[in-house]
Design brief:
Low-confidence stretches: none
Number of helices: 10
Number of strands: 4
Order of helices and strands: EHEHEEHHHHHHHH
Helix content: 40-55%
GO molecular function: transferase activity
Protein name: Glutathione S-transferase domain-containing protein
CATH class of the largest domain: Alpha Beta
Pfam family, one: GST_N_2
Structural class: alpha+beta
């Protein structure tokens, strides 16, 4: 059994999709980040970085519980555990390269673009433009790579495609103001639609839907989500 620490945001969504694709048994442990539950000692014992997603595999290597945090690490771990969605052995260098491209580029720049366009105070035009343009540039790189390809790495659906889906699903927030945010990236749009049409994607969207996550961004949420903006007491 896998304990899946979840909040309905792009990186946990990737893990939800892979869990649904593999059929590995799991239970959802809601972590309401707007209430600050990611800072609770019990969760910090799972992920010292206070971020979701994270998992605890109760049947880890050697039959011992194993914690894994960071969405990309989790995708690799679960794909290896299930022996699925890793592509052909010859494609492993490409798979790892594009996974890291998403993990260190497309994902973080998309996240910062969302933050500065939707959450940051006014008067930060340089930061807004910087992160929005870098998000667009990463879209462009991946769109060019997908020209003439069905999937990101090799000839089959892999965790690279699953990883991209998590953020492309939020493209409307990343590229604020565009009603069809992937229109300028036809290959990315095709990839997203191919992944999104899979039955597991529909199931992944329902993960955690029975939990009443906080939706309001009030001072409690601001302090929980952006603790570095507030001085420490004492």
């Amino acid at each position: 059994m896998i304990r899946f620490y979840y909040h309905p945001t792009p990186n946990p969504a990737k893990v939800a999709l892979l869990l649904e694709e593999t059929g590995l048994p799991y239970e959802v442990v809601p972590v309401d980040t707007r209430k600050g539950e990611q800072h609770d000692p019990a969760f910090l014992a799972v992920n010292p970085n206070a971020k979701v997603p994270a998992i605890v595999d109760l049947d880890g290597p050697g039959g011992k519980p194993a914690r894994v945090f960071d969405s990309t690490a989790i995708l690799i771990y679960l794909a290896e555990k299930a022996d699925a969605f890793l592509g052909a052995p010859d494609d492993r260098p490409e798979l790892l390269s594009w996974l890291m491209f998403i993990a260190s580029g497309l994902g973080p720049f998309s996240g910062q673009a969302v933050h500065f366009q939707h959450a940051a105070p006014e008067g930060l035009d340089y930061a807004r433009n910087r992160y929005r343009r870098e998000a667009e540039r990463h879209y462009e790189v991946l769109d060019r790579h997908l020209d003439g390809r069905d999937w990101i790495a090799g000839d089959s659906y892999t965790i690279a495609d699953i990883s991209a889906w998590g953020w492309l699903e939020r493209a409307e927030r990343v590229l604020k103001g565009k009603t069809d945010p992937l229109a300028d990236y036809p290959n990315l749009k095709r990839l997203f639609q191919a992944v999104d049409a899979r039955p597991a994607a529909e199931r992944a969207r329902r993960v955690g839907s029975d939990h009443d996550f906080k939706t309001v961004i009030d001072e409690q949420a601001q302090r929980a989500l952006y603790p570095s903006n507030y001085p420490k007491a004492g």
